[in-house]
Structures are given as C-alpha cells and as structure tokens.
Amino acid sequence: MKLEAIINENYENLNENDLYILRFILKHKVECLDMSITQLARKCNVSTASILRMTQKLGLSGYSEFKFALKNDISADFISKRNDVMNCNYMDLFEKSIKDTIKHFQNTNTDEIFHHLWSAKQVYIYGTGWAQKLAGEQLMRTFFSCNRPMILIQHFTEFKMMLPNYTENDLIIIISLSGNIEHIIDCLRILKMNKVPTLSITDFKNNQLASLATYNLYYQAIYFNDLKIGNNPIIINSMGTLQVLCELIYIGYLEKYGTHIN
C-alpha cells in the first residue's frame, strides 16, 4: 500500500504535529529514506518520541517499519515512471513531459515568484550546465524585452565570489537538472542564512536545491537510454521542457505585470 493511502486510512488519528512531519517526509522521500530517526527529528524540529508516536498512529510497529513502507513507496514510484517510458515512443514521451510541466506550473502559486521578479533590485541567473545556461540566456533575452534586466552568471567561481553582494532585495535563479550539486548546495545554505530570495528550477524529483530554495519550479526531463550511434549505445537527457517552462514564466509574468510596464 502506498504511503499516502496509509496516511489517508489513519488520518483521523493524526494531529497537526504528525501532519507537519508527514508533509516534510512526502516532500523529501528520497532524502528521508537515508535518515535515522534522530536526523529526521532534527530536520523537523521535533523529538524522536514524536516521530515514533506518529508511525504507531499509522498502524506501524515503529520507525523501521515506516522506513520499509517509505522504501516500497519510492520503488513503486520509480517502477511506474519506468513503465511509462517503456510503453511510450519518444513523441509520446515529449507530449507527456510537456503536459506534466504545464500542469505542475498551473498548480503552483506563482504570485510571490512574479512579485519578486517585478520588485527585485537585481535578478541573477546561474545555470549549472550547458543546457541550463541556454535556458538562462532565454530568460534574460525575453525579460529584457519587457524592461526586466537580468544578470547571467557564466561560471561557478563568479557565482561564489558574488555571495557577499547578494541582498534581501535581489532574486537569485538557479537552474539545474538533478538539484544535488554539493558546491551549489553549500552556497544555497549561505543565501538562505542571509535571507536572500532564491528560485530553483529543476527536474521533477526531490532534491536538495529545491528543499533549500525559497521558491521552486519544475520541468519534466526525458531520459532516452535505448538509442545508438552506430553500434554504440548512448544515453540522452532531453530538457526541451525546460525551454517550455521558461516561456511559461515569461508569459505568466506578462499576464501579471504587463500593464504596469512602461
């Protein structure tokens, strides 16, 4: 049984503190799988006893059985996604990924994101890879046309050197695929400590970058692992949906603030 179904079955037994813990776990499934009960308690700012009681309210014997249920839940999600890929050709995958990206964007409350884009003194963009940098360039060009200049940071060294200069009045946009690049994570912790607003743009999955950023937007990357060049198998990560998401951000911003632009 999926973890969400177990929670639904025992919902009346749960208090607000239990729901707070479970919301954190559901948002960070993969990260929580490797946590001890002490580490999870520290992340949620609760006692280990609170977590143990929560697992027992779900009808489980304790934290070990809860982690087993969580592991099965993650495995089921992976198998479902893998079967989707195996049963689709690449055109179907593109269509599904675009629809998933649009659906998630529609279900995200973007008001505060657009407000920060509108009001920020400076907007900085950093992409962790080649495709991400292209997406950053796309954002910079499109927003320049509506008098919202952005500064594209080309190299990590430059991004790190600028850390003391970012302020609470700025907005930092970080575009990544995995969202789990350790040196970027260290910088995000500093930005969070200094209360600098950040927007992460990553693939659909739990990741450290999204958990630390002030705001999150997601795109659905596509993975092709059955292609060949000659006799050599290749793996391709297609991030065409990242370009779609950039367009959605731009159009959504114009819908919100277009009439205020001089």
TrEMBL record:
GO terms for molecular function: carbohydrate derivative binding; DNA binding; DNA-binding transcription factor activity. Pfam families: HTH_6 (PF01418), SIS (PF01380). It comes from Caldibacillus debilis. Keywords: DNA-binding, Transcription, Transcription regulation. Residues 113-259 form the SIS domain. InterPro entries: Homeodomain-like_sf, HTH_RpiR, RpiR-like, RpiR-like_SIS, SIS_dom, SIS_dom_sf, WH-like_DNA-bd_sf. This is MurR/RpiR family transcriptional regulator. Gene3D superfamilies: Glucose-6-phosphate isomerase like protein, domain 1, Winged helix-like DNA-binding domain superfamily/Winged helix DNA-binding domain. One of its GO terms (biological process) is carbohydrate derivative metabolic process. Residues 1-77 form the HTH rpiR-type domain. The keyword DNA-binding applies.
